[in-house]
């Protein structure tokens, strides 16, 4: 690994660790530089500013989740089992993330909603499209519902969930998942 890659890796690892321990407002670029054994100039050379560095670290966590979910969808499990595996994976990831990391993620989102919205929404839609395809092939999702209908439904649920405390969502997530799955079949 060359020096540039080593420095970038050290910066990202230190920033990830700090985001799990403290609020963004309590993290300084000086501290990141000191802990990563690089100069502050080096950090700004690679990441432009603190906000972009924070966003990149948070996005890397989200990218890991998307890649993992894609692997789950690609298995031979049926639609319901796939959906449940995704649900359990997401709950596990949420529990692994510290409350402070989640607060930092939500703060970045609140400060700049477009931070996740466009590319993340597009990536999520591609992942969900595969899941919907699997559900339709097994007759678990009505052909009556278009992908556009389903994405709108998922977006509405996601937007509504942002205002609900995380512990309440986790407590009710199993029932909410079942309600979602049951709503995908059109009743004749």
Q: Explain this structure to me?
A:
The chain is mostly helical. Helix content is 78%, strand content 0%. α4 packs antiparallel against α5 and α5 runs antiparallel to α9. The longest helix has 24 residues, at 50-73. The chain is elongated, with a radius of gyration of 19 Å. The mean pLDDT is 85.
Stretches where pLDDT is under 50 for at least 5 consecutive residues are none
> End-to-end span in angstroms?
60 Å
Helix content: over 70%
Please outline the major beta sheet.
none
Number of helices: 9
Radius of gyration, in Å, reads: 19 Å
* β-sheet strand percentage: under 5%
Shape: elongated
Query: Helix/strand/pairing class, anyone?
Result: mainly alpha
Order of helices and strands: HHHHHHHHH
Quick one: how many beta strands?
0
Mean pLDDT: 85
């Amino acid at each position: 690994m060359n020096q540039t890659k080593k420095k970038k890796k050290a910066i990202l690892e230190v920033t990830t660790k700090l985001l799990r321990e403290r609020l963004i407002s309590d993290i300084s670029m000086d501290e990141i530089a000191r802990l990563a054994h690089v100069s502050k100039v080096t950090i700004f050379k690679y990441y432009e500013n603190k906000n972009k560095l924070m966003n990149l670290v948070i996005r890397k966590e989200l990218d890991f989740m998307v890649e993992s979910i894609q692997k789950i969808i690609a298995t031979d499990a049926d639609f319901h089992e796939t959906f449940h595996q995704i649900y359990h994976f997401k709950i596990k990831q949420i529990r692994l993330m510290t409350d402070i990391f989640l607060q930092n993620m939500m703060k970045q989102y609140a400060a700049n909603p477009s931070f996740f919205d466009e590319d993340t929404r597009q990536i999520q839609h591609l992942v969900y499209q595969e899941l919907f395809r699997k559900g339709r092939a097994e007759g678990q999702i009505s052909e009556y519902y278009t992908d556009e209908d389903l994405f709108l439904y998922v977006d509405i649920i996601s937007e509504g969930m942002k205002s609900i405390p995380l512990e309440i969502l986790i407590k009710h997530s199993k029932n909410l998942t079942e309600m979602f799955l049951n709503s995908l079949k059109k009743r004749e």
